[in-house]
Amino acid sequence: MRRGERPPLSDDGARRVIKERESYERALRKSGVPAENMPRKWISRTPEQMKQYLSDNKWQWRWKRRYTRPVEAAIAAVRQTSSLPPEDVDMRQVMKPFVKDLGFRDMCIVLKEQRGWRQAREFFEWMKLQIPYSPSVIAYTTLLGIYGQAGKLTLAEETLSEMLDAGVEPDEVAGGCMLEAYARWERYDTLLEFYEAMRQRGLVPSAHVYRTMIVTLYKAERHSDALMLWEDLLVEKLEPNFVLYAIIIHILNKEGRTEDAVHTFKDMRAAGHLPDELLYNTIICALGKLGRYQESEALYLDMKKQGIVPSKFTYTIMINVWSKAGRFASAAETLAEMQRSGCIADEVVYCSIINMYGKAGLYEEAEKIFKEMDTLGLLSHEKSYTSMAKVRAEAGRHAEALKLFDVMAEKGLLTTRMTWNTLLHCFVRIGDVEQATKVYNDMVEAGSANVVTYGNMINLYSKFQMVEDAENLLAEMRESGVKPDEYIYGSFVKLYCNSDMIDKATMVVQEMKDDGLVPDQIIKTNLMQAYGRVGRYDEAEELFWSLQDPGAVAVSSVLSIQESVCNEREMFPLGQALQSPIDTQILNQLLIKRAEAGELREAELLLDKLVEAGGCIVDTAAVLMINLYGRRGLFQKAKSLFNSLQKKDHPPSLYVYNTMIKLCAVCKELEEAIFVFDRMEENGRMFDAVTVSILVHAYTKEGRFKDAAGLMKRAKKVGVAMDTVAYNTSLKANLKSGNLKGALEVYGEMQEADIEPSAKTYTILISLFSKLGDLGRAVQAFEVLNSSEVGADEIAYSQMIHCYGCAGRPKEAADLFQEMETKGFKPNEVIYNNLLDAFARAGLFAEARLLLSDMRRKGCPPSSVTYLLLMSAYGSKGKPADAESLLHLMQDRGLYPDCRHYNEVIRAYGNVGKLSDACRIFYELKTVGIGLELGCFRTLVKIHLDHGQFEQGWQIYKDLSQSFTVDQNLYGIAVELCIGAGRRTEADQLKVELKGKGFSYRDKPPFPRPVPSIWKRSDHLAPVTDTGSLSN
């Protein structure tokens, strides 16, 4: 380098200077400096730096860049040749005007700016004939990039060979162009071969090329090759970007390398990249599979801390994680948080909740969720039915589980292997060998049998000690090409151990080892138990010490074996084992397992062992045991267990307190529930909305409305965050108990607390306003619900139709019914009955009869309650003959009227004074086989009293009273009949009898008309007013 000459800038420095100069020139142009006065200064770069600049700064070389006029004219001239046939293009004539003005750098620019591969090829051939040209990696690399983008891989490979022949050694950029071309056009094998050739020459592609290759291989599902490139990228210390991290994490997760996926996620965070929701969900789920629940929770909290809003999928994953961890209270809290956030639970979420309740042993709760799914129309996938079938099978309700498969068969959902295996598992659980064999044969014919199928059948044969059938099935399995897994080998070990064929069991374990499989704890424990039964204690002891981390079952087996040989020798130092921290954990795990399975005797034995060892009962185990005692009706045992958990230094958790309070409420031990509540506060445990919901429901059920209201006010005063569920519980409890005023007060408190009502809240409010006779507010509540995102459901429509019927608005009820059908809701019997009741109240009997036909036509045939409603309406409107005709119509439809229906007909004839027909219907009870009934008898004598037929009514009472246990009302009617007939002596005798039975008689006792049916009518409603607002 000559004196005074600047050394070439580095590549990074060159780019920096260029950008700074462009910014400077841009500022000069904005300030109005003429173009001829703009400073022009070229930056000195080596050929290698120029090559790198051309490759890494593609955005610099665009048509909008200001080139010299000869260069721009040359670019345009070459591009214009694209409109000519290839044979008519003479590049020498095209470029003749520009030969003197173009140097090598200018020619590279013209080549770079070509859009068509033909023009690039022709120009390059011309370029090689020019004097300034010398074989350069820049020109060849530019041409390789153009061929690669156009998919001309053969021309690219020929150009690369020509490049080598010309003595130009390809560099990383040229190799990167070829790799990108192979990746772009899905030449995967050639891509990997060329990559290996580059690495042998010592060439390392750029980070951009690595990203392109890995993304391409990921899309082609060639995960092992993508991971190989990822490892090379890390070795070369190239910096991955966010997309590359995300792809590698998904690949590792799919390949089952969960631990590596977690490490990569941590490296991504350390590199400063913020994961998105999908990556958070993936790693949270992966940590849950590894059993690292605390890390899952920490990551979930970190996700929310970063401002990422959890989606429905995030909540579903967390519910599954809590369910696996046995933290069902946290799962319920997550579900509540999901509902508060506005996420609408879909079929997947509901299935997760069903699985959670199934694992917790809360089978009734799972049934409620399943029914709710059916109501919402979410039962569209076989997984939902399969999940519920598994829960019912675990609960021992196998017949109900099998009914679900019948429903699935009707809907055509029995399609996947998982469903068939679940059906087979149910038959195995109930021990139905015939049906299980039939399902197995169908699966074999369909080619759907897999390891799980064979495992279920072998398990069935093991249950019935069918050794020969199991061995034949194993041979058939091997012939079909299915290789036995650990479960199959374990089933055979269990079968041979239960059949006292210990030597065969030992041979199976050895065969398993020969196949490269390691016997797990269950297999070793089964074999250890068998050795213990036959007195082979040395081998049992050897198996026990071979367990690195003995599980709960192994410890239980050791306990039983130790007890059987305790008088002979001390085989196992169990005292030392029980002193280690892991033993109490094992006992808790086993206790949870037994309690979930409902095995009370075994669970109590483990509980005693745990207490003897001085271990602490975990909350999950305590809750499961309290619930188990509750299901068995052993309230005192649950109470004793709960009292044993009361420790000053470590009182039970809120979850345990709530469980005990709920059990007390269910067992109608309200005072005990209050006592537990007080102790909870004494121990420093603050109650929450769940506690309030439980106690409010119990208070209102016992009619203690003031206490319920007081608890709500107290919760508000101490700052307990009452949620929608708690207020709904209070509203519903007050409504059921008839305390309408209290319900209104609760709703007012809910509004004051600014709690957003849920769909269930509005449904309860509709029922409340209906009972209050406030149609306007009921309509307003329904409209608010219907206009919300959730929309009104069948229950809300049913309540509103009933409300219109009570208000004497049949047209509005019919319109609402029509709207409901238009939205795709299928009316059930209750909804039809509400609409029919609305028609009948208004005297629209023709419409009511048409509705009966419509019910039959739409697959919802009228029930006895439906006919009872219509009979009552006919009677109230003075149409006894029509009411009687319904008796015959019911019999024609295959329904058998009971005493309630005859009672309505008797009352109907009595209302119009046709007492002889009323007597005829009454005595007809004997003919139809029902027999004389007290309610009908009371109605018959009462209508005689009402119509002044005292003597006839007295004779009927005198003749038939010996057939019934006469109550206070009937005695009062008889006294009035005697007084009306002038029979003072008989009346006095009846009064004496009435007093002797502990009843009191008033001169004019009220005889209210009994409710005609189980369908509660609301004739007492106040006049309808459309005034009022939900906010008042």
UniProtKB/TrEMBL annotation:
<dbReference type="InterPro" id="IPR033443">
    <property type="entry name" value="PROP1-like_PPR_dom"/>
</dbReference>
<feature type="repeat" description="PPR">
    <location>
        <begin position="723"/>
        <end position="757"/>
    </location>
</feature>
<feature type="repeat" description="PPR">
    <location>
        <begin position="416"/>
        <end position="446"/>
    </location>
</feature>
<feature type="repeat" description="PPR">
    <location>
        <begin position="520"/>
        <end position="554"/>
    </location>
</feature>
<feature type="repeat" description="PPR">
    <location>
        <begin position="346"/>
        <end position="380"/>
    </location>
</feature>
<feature type="repeat" description="PPR">
    <location>
        <begin position="311"/>
        <end position="345"/>
    </location>
</feature>
<feature type="repeat" description="PPR">
    <location>
        <begin position="381"/>
        <end position="415"/>
    </location>
</feature>
<feature type="repeat" description="PPR">
    <location>
        <begin position="828"/>
        <end position="862"/>
    </location>
</feature>
<feature type="repeat" description="PPR">
    <location>
        <begin position="136"/>
        <end position="170"/>
    </location>
</feature>
<dbReference type="Pfam" id="PF13812">
    <property type="entry name" value="PPR_3"/>
</dbReference>
<protein>
    <recommendedName>
        <fullName>PROP1-like PPR domain-containing protein</fullName>
    </recommendedName>
</protein>
<keyword id="KW-0677">Repeat</keyword>
<dbReference type="InterPro" id="IPR002885">
    <property type="entry name" value="PPR_rpt"/>
</dbReference>
<feature type="repeat" description="PPR">
    <location>
        <begin position="485"/>
        <end position="519"/>
    </location>
</feature>
<dbReference type="Pfam" id="PF13041">
    <property type="entry name" value="PPR_2"/>
</dbReference>
<feature type="domain" description="PROP1-like PPR">
    <location>
        <begin position="365"/>
        <end position="445"/>
    </location>
</feature>
<feature type="repeat" description="PPR">
    <location>
        <begin position="793"/>
        <end position="827"/>
    </location>
</feature>
<dbReference type="InterPro" id="IPR011990">
    <property type="entry name" value="TPR-like_helical_dom_sf"/>
</dbReference>
<feature type="repeat" description="PPR">
    <location>
        <begin position="171"/>
        <end position="205"/>
    </location>
</feature>
<comment type="similarity">
    <text>Belongs to the PPR family. P subfamily.</text>
</comment>
<feature type="repeat" description="PPR">
    <location>
        <begin position="450"/>
        <end position="484"/>
    </location>
</feature>
<dbReference type="Pfam" id="PF17177">
    <property type="entry name" value="PPR_long"/>
</dbReference>
<dbReference type="Pfam" id="PF01535">
    <property type="entry name" value="PPR"/>
</dbReference>
<feature type="repeat" description="PPR">
    <location>
        <begin position="688"/>
        <end position="722"/>
    </location>
</feature>
<feature type="repeat" description="PPR">
    <location>
        <begin position="898"/>
        <end position="932"/>
    </location>
</feature>
<feature type="repeat" description="PPR">
    <location>
        <begin position="276"/>
        <end position="310"/>
    </location>
</feature>
<feature type="repeat" description="PPR">
    <location>
        <begin position="241"/>
        <end position="275"/>
    </location>
</feature>
<feature type="repeat" description="PPR">
    <location>
        <begin position="653"/>
        <end position="687"/>
    </location>
</feature>
<feature type="repeat" description="PPR">
    <location>
        <begin position="863"/>
        <end position="897"/>
    </location>
</feature>
